[in-house]
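Record type: monomer structure entry
Structure origin: computed from sequence
Chain ID: A
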Amino acid sequence: MEWLMNPWVIIIIVVSVVIGNLAALKATANMKFGQSHKIKNQQEKEDIETEKPETIDNSENTK
């Protein structure tokens, strides 16, 4: 039990916990939660916006 209270052992344990937490944070930082749905909706809006000027241009040309 005496070796467990050694300052070097405590430092190694603390450093390993910090490194483990940083690794877990790095692994989960790039996860996308529901953004694919938002991106899909944004792409649909862009498609609709690009279609609208074409229909307006076509109606102006027919007049």
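Annotation 1: Helices lie at 7-29, 35-62.
Annotation 2: DSSP finds two helices and no strands in the chain.
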